Amino acid sequence: MAVTEAQNPLIGENTCGSLLKKLQEIWDEVGESDEERDKMLLQLEQECLDVYKRKVEHAAKSRAQLLQALSDAKIELSTLLSALGEKSFSGIPDDTSGTIKEQLAAIAPVLEQLWQQKEERIKDFADVQLQIQRICGEITGTSNVNDVPVVDESDLTLKKFEEYQSELQELQKEKSDRLQKVFEFVSTVHDLCAVLGMDFFSTVTEVHPSLNDSTGGQSKSISNDTLARLANTVLTLKEDKKQRLHKLQELASQLIDLWNLMDTPPEERKLFDHVTCNISASVDEVTIPGALALDLIEQAEVEVERLDQLKASRMKEIAFKKQTELEEIFAHAHIEIDPEAAREKIMALIDSGDIEPTELLADMDNQIAKAKEEALSRKDILDKVEKWMSACEEESWLEDYNRDENRYNASRGAHLNLKRAEKARILVNKIPALVDTLVAKTRAWEETHDMSFTYDGVPLLAMLDEYAMLRHEREEEKRRMRDQKKFQEQQSAEPEAPFGSRPSPARPVSANKKVGGPRANGANGTPNRRLSLNAHQNGSRSIAKDGKRDSTRLVAPVNYVAISKEDAASHVSGTEPIPASP
C-alpha cells in the first residue's frame, strides 16, 4: 500500500517532506546503505539548487529586460516629446510609483498616443514639403512628381511646421505672381501677334507648350526659363513692331508725297487708308489687328514702286508743278524772277537726262524751302508795306472826297462817306510814323542779309525816297495854293475896276495835278507798287464829263503830310470847313 502511494505522487498532497519521508521508507525497505543515502540526498540537494538557480537567473533576466524596456520607453517618450515639441504631456506616470510592469503599463498608452500624433505630424510635414518641392520645381523648371520629400522626424515641432507653412505661403504668392506675369506676357504676345499678323499659338508654343490654350487643363509653366523666354519674345515682337511701323510710316509718307505730286484722286487714296492712318501714330497707339502685317507692308511697297515708275513718266508735269509753287511763293513775297528761263532750264535738264528725276525734285524742294524761308524773313516788312499802301489809298480817297463840292448833300450814303472820311484822316495821320518804321526795318533787313530789299524788282528804299520827294512837291503845291488864295482875297477887297479890265485869276497848272499812289500793274501778274512820277501822273484820276469820278479806277495818293479839314475844304473848293461827323 505504501509503495503504491509512492508510485502515484498525484494521490494526496506531495511536499518535499512527504516525498523525502517516502524516499526514506523506500530506502529502508530496500536496505540502502547510509553512504548511498547521503550520496543520493546530496544529489537531490544539488539538483534543487540548480533549479532554484535557473529560476533566479531567469527572473533576474526578465527583470533586466523589463527595466530595459522601461528605460527604452522613457527614452522614446522623451524623444517623442522633444520631436513634437511638447514640454509637458498629460498622463505621463511618475518614475518612482508602482512596479516595473505597472510603470510599463502606465507609459504604454502615452507612447501609443504620441506615436499616433507623430504619424499625423509626419503626414502634415510630408504634405507641406511636397507642395514646397513641387512649387520650387515649377520655379526652377526641374519638377519631378515621383520624388518623395524626406521628413526630418527629429524636428516635428509646431514651430518648424509653421516655418514650412510660411515658406509654402511665400512660394504660393511667388507662384501667383509668376502666373500673373505669364498671363500678362501671353496677353502682350497675343496683342502683338494680332497687330503683326503672326500666328499666336505657334509663337507661344515655341516658348513652352503649356502656354498654348489648346492644351486643355495643363498648368502654365512659371519657370525662370519660361519667363525669360517670354520676356525675350515680347521684346523681339515689340522691336519687330517698331521696325514695321517705321517702315510703314516711311511708305505712307512716300505715298502721300507721290499722291500730292501726281494729284491722285481721293478714291485711289482711300484704298490705302489702312496704311496712311498710322503715319503719325506712336508704337503704343497701333493696336488694330493686322495693321502691321507683312502682306500689308508688301502691298504698300508695291504701290510705292508703281507710283515711282509713274512719276518718272510724269516728271515734266511734276517739275512744272513745283516750279509753279516756287513762282507763287516769289509772287506773294514780291520777289521778281524770270519764270520762262526757269522752265526752259527744267525742260533742258529733263530732256538731256543728265540729272536723276529724284535729284531734280529734291533740288526744287530745296529751292522751295529756301524761298519760303526768304518769304518769311520779308513778311514783317511786306505787311507794313501793305498798311502803307492802304493808307495811301485812303488818303487819295480823302482828297477826292474833299474836292467834291456836293459831299454834304443829303444824298444816299453821304453819312457813310462822312464816317469814312473821319477814319481816313486818323489813318493818314499815322503815315509818317509808318514810313519811318518801314525805312528802319528795311535798312536793318538789308544789313542782315547784305542785299537790297526789292519790291517787284524795285528797291523799296528807292520807292520810299521817291515817295518823300513827291511829298515835298505836294507841300510846295499846298504852299502855292495858300498864297494864291490870299492874293484872291486881297483882290476881292479892292474897288472893282472897269468892266473887262480886271484880270481873271488863272488856276494854277498844278491845281488839278494829282500825285498817284504806289499801286500799278507789275510783273508776275501782281500789283507793281513802284512809285514813279510819270506812272502816277499818267495814272491820275480821270474826271468824266459830268464831273464825277470814274468808280472803276483805284488811285492811291502820295501826299505825305496830312492836311486839316479846314485846309482841305478851303484850298480845294473855297467853302467853309467840314463839320464834324455826327
From TrEMBL:
Residues 523-541 have a biased composition (Polar residues). Residues 475-553, 563-582 are annotated as: Disordered. Belongs to the MAP65/ASE1 family. Residues 154-181 form a coiled coil. This is Microtubule-associated protein MAP65-1a. GO terms for biological process: cytokinesis by cell plate formation; microtubule cytoskeleton organization. It is found in: Cytoplasm, Cytoskeleton; Nucleus. GO terms for cellular component: cytoplasm; microtubule; nucleus; spindle. GO terms for molecular function: microtubule binding. InterPro entries: MAP65_Ase1_PRC1. Residues 475-488, 543-552 have a biased composition (Basic and acidic residues). Keywords: Coiled coil, Cytoplasm, Cytoskeleton, Microtubule, Nucleus, Phosphoprotein. It holds the Pfam family MAP65_ASE1.
